[in-house]
Write a structure and sequence with these properties.
The chain is mainly alpha-helical. The protein is built from 8 helices and no strands. Helix 2 packs antiparallel against helix 3, helix 5 packs antiparallel against helix 6 and helix 5 runs parallel beside helix 7. The longest helix has 30 residues. It is elongated. The protein starts with 7 loop residues before the first helix and ends in a 9-residue tail after the last helix.
Length: 152
């Protein structure tokens, strides 16, 4: 069987410029089951802010090899770029099950956690502003604990 190897220098130049190397697509056409090819292209696409395409490649990468930990980092990064912090955290944590010490997965999970916390704070802030804008009786009602109805 012919095994295609994309020279790392080609991939690194493309990644640093934030664009997918034309060699990635050619390599994928020659060896469509190599997860590294999809992963490399996913990284380049994510850096080019083409996160939907990056997610497609990350998922293709993981279809090729579900045990390829870097694929979960690629998926998490693409999901973060799409504003899907909870799904990104799940992808990073899945990868950490395979490679617990991987710095990219660890850092990605921390970034996703921070994004989730920022979102929680935005929601809380919006909620307190909404309650603050209520009239006296409505504000008092919103501040009271909700009574639970229990059927006996």
């Amino acid at each position: 069987m012919l095994r295609v190897v994309l020279h790392p220098a080609c991939a690194n130049v493309a990644h640093s410029r934030g664009r997918a190397s034309p060699h990635s697509g050619h390599a994928i056409s020659l060896d469509p089951c190599n997860p590294a090819f999809y992963g490399n292209r996913s990284l380049a696409l994510e850096r080019a802010a083409r996160c939907e395409e990056a997610l497609v490649d990350a998922e293709s990468c993981l279809r090729c090899d579900p045990a390829y930990a870097a694929g979960y980092e690629r998926k998490g990064r693409a999901l973060l770029g799409l504003g899907e912090a909870a799904a990104a955290l799940a992808a990073f944590e899945r990868g950490r099950l395979l490679a617990a010490e991987d710095a990219g997965l660890r850092d990605g999970a921390a970034e996703a956690q921070r994004a989730l916390e920022r979102r929680r704070m935005e929601i809380m802030q919006a909620g307190s502003e909404a309650v603050g804008g209520l009239g006296g009786a409505a504000r008092a009602a919103a501040a009271r604990p909700v009574e639970r109805l229990v059927s006996r």
